[in-house]
Amino acid sequence: MLLTMLAEGAEASALGLTTTGWVAVGVLIVFAIMLWTKVPAIIAGILDRQIAEIRQNLDEAANLRKEAEALKAEYEAKTAGAQAEIEALMDSAEKEAATLVEEATADAKALIARRKKMAEEKIGAAERSAIAAVRAKAATAATQAAEALIAARHDAAADKSLVDKAIGDIGKTLN
After folding, report:
1. Residue-wise DSSP of 112-144
2. What is the number of domains present in the chain?
């Protein structure tokens, strides 16, 4: 028989190999089969493809990162430009508002001056009208008083002497 049993304490062997030896031979046979069927080359190919895929993913990630950084820089530049534009618009609006306030102030002062002048003219016209009315009443009152005095102090003889004197004065002026 192939397996020989020795005394107690001895290991079993077959063809001169112990169990450990046969395990080693089996492992060597498996390795030999794997080498003969080119398993390491297949595994290396699979690993190379995975490495290439990982490198491609890393390259894509790096490109995406560069694009993202470029977009970020572009938007930061746009933001800075927009901020500058906002500040320019604010300055322009403040200047325009100041100009409008100055114009409104000037227009208000001109309007006040025109209205004041119109009011003064109305007051002057009212004063002139009042003075003319007072003069007219004074003239009427003076005429009525003179009439009353003349009627009370003059008689027909006094009238005749006044008429004669007036005719004489006219005659002197004509000559």
Report:
1. HHHHHHHHHHHHHHHHHHHHHHHHHHHHHHHHH
2. 1
> Is residue 174 in a domain?
no
- Mind listing the pLDDT tens digit for each residue in 85-132? 898 899 999 999 999 999 999 999 999 999 999 999 999 999 999 999
> What single-letter amino acid sits at 165?
K
Bridge-partner residues for 4, per DSSP? 13
DSSP letter for each residue of 14-31: ETTEEHHHHHHHHHHHHH
Neighbours of 147 (CB within 10 A): 10
Query: What CA–CA distance (Å, rounded) separates 7 from 104?
Result: 127
Whether residue 5 lies inside any domain: the answer is no
Query: How many residues appear in the chain?
Result: 175
pLDDT per position as a tens digit, 15-69: 777 888 888 888 999 888 888 888 878 888 899 999 999 999 999 999 999 999 9
Q: Residue 131: inside a domain, yes or no?
A: yes
Report the first-to-last Cα separation within the chain, whole angstroms.
200
Q: Is 173 a domain residue?
A: no
Cross-strand bridge partners of residue 3: 14
* Residue range of the domain that includes 113: 11-168
- Please tell me the distance from the alpha carbon of residue 135 to that of residue 145, in angstroms, as a whole number: 15
